[in-house]
Structures are given as structure tokens and as C-alpha cells.
Design brief:
mainly alpha, 0% strand
């Protein structure tokens, strides 16, 4: 198979991939916003749970962050189907997490607290997987990109994975609350410190 050597061809390939990623991210954002609007419209239909809402906010921020940092893929010198499949599956994993945060429907009168703890194994299992996949995505972008993120990046991912593993095995509301708030605040801090501007 002949490789495309023309830089313009690389740019066209990246645009092709970015369009697909944008569609998937857009579906995830739409899903989150649609269900958030339902809560505003019918606040008593399904009692809300603060921890659940924080994780919904985390996924909203992470999706925006994902779309922002994937600009770094524009520097990818060579595209093949395996790389295309990898980043597409990463985006689909994010959409699946959004779908788990807000189900299409809940039984009448059921609250989000029971739903959250009933689905925590799935949500946090996929959340841990997301940070494993994210590490692969970072390595794909090259050693210079990974080095730029520093040791903090690997510690960050390891802590998210460890926290997700703990969240799977415990129903302690205090732990879940602290983990959710800490995850959201750290994600916002990470974006501000590392991704405020893209080169």
C-alpha cells in the first residue's frame, strides 16, 4: 500500500477523521444537554442526586476537552486504519459513558440516586478504561507530546483509574461525593494549566 507523502494529503485525512469524531462528540453533548433540560423541565419527575449531576458535569467538560486536545492529531504524520479505528473507538467510549450517565428513561418516580448506584459498576469500569485508552492516545501522538505532559499526566491517569476501581466496590456516599467533586475540579485545573492554548 502506498503512503501519502504530501502534507496536504495528511491534512485532508485529519479533517476526514475530525469530522467523524466531531459527530460522535456532538451526539454525546446533545445527549447530556437534552437530559439536563428534562430535569429542569420536570424536576420532581425523577429526584436528582448531587453526585450523579457532578459526574454528568464531568463528562460534559471531558467531552469538550477531548474535542479540544484532539487537535494534536493534526500533527500525526501517518494515518492508517488501525489508528483511525483507535481514536474512533475512544470517541465512542465517551458517548457510551454519556449514555450511562443519563439513561433514556427511568421508571416513573424513580430517582437518580438508585440509578447511579445500580449502574456504578458499568460507569466506573468504563471510566477506568477511558483513562487507559487515553494513555494510548497520548502515546500515539508521539514521545514529544507525552514528554510535554510530564509525570503528572501518568499519575493523574493512575489516580483516576484507582479511584474508579474503588468506586466500583464501595457504595459509601461520602467517598463517591468526594471523588466526583475532586475529579471535576482536577479536570478543570488540568485543562486550564495544560490546554488553555494549543500550539
Amino acid at each position: 500500500m502506498q503512503e501519502a507523502a504530501d502534507p496536504a494529503s495528511h491534512a485532508n485525512l485529519y479533517i476526514h477523521v475530525r469530522i467523524l469524531l466531531g459527530m460522535i462528540v456532538g451526539l454525546g453533548l446533545t445527549h447530556l444537554l437534552r437530559h439536563a433540560a428534562r430535569i429542569v423541565e420536570r424536576p420532581r419527575a425523577h429526584p436528582v442526586y448531587g453526585v450523579h449531576l457532578v459526574w454528568a458535569a464531568f463528562m460534559f467538560v471531558y467531552l469538550l476537552h477531548f474535542w479540544w486536545w484532539e487537535f494534536s492529531l493534526s500533527h500525526q504524520a501517518h494515518w492508517n486504519f488501525n489508528l483511525y479505528l483507535y481514536v474512533t473507538l475512544y470517541a465512542l467510549l465517551l458517548y457510551l459513558l454519556c449514555a450511562l450517565v443519563f439513561p433514556e428513561s427511568l421508571p416513573e418516580g424513580a430517582g437518580y440516586r438508585d440509578y447511579y448506584y445500580g449502574r456504578k459498576h458499568w460507569f466506573f469500569g468504563l471510566l477506568a478504561l477511558m483513562f487507559v485508552v487515553d494513555a494510548g492516545d497520548t502515546l500515539i501522538k508521539g514521545p514529544a507530546y507525552a514528554h510535554q505532559l510530564g509525570t503528572e499526566y501518568w499519575v493523574r491517569n493512575a489516580m483516576y483509574i484507582a479511584g474508579s476501581a474503588a468506586a466500583i466496590v464501595t457504595r459509601n456516599p461520602r467517598f463517591h461525593g468526594v471523588f466526583a467533586v475532586a475529579a471535576l475540579l482536577y479536570e478543570l485545573s488540568w485543562i486550564w494549566r495544560r490546554y488553555e492554548n494549543l500550539a
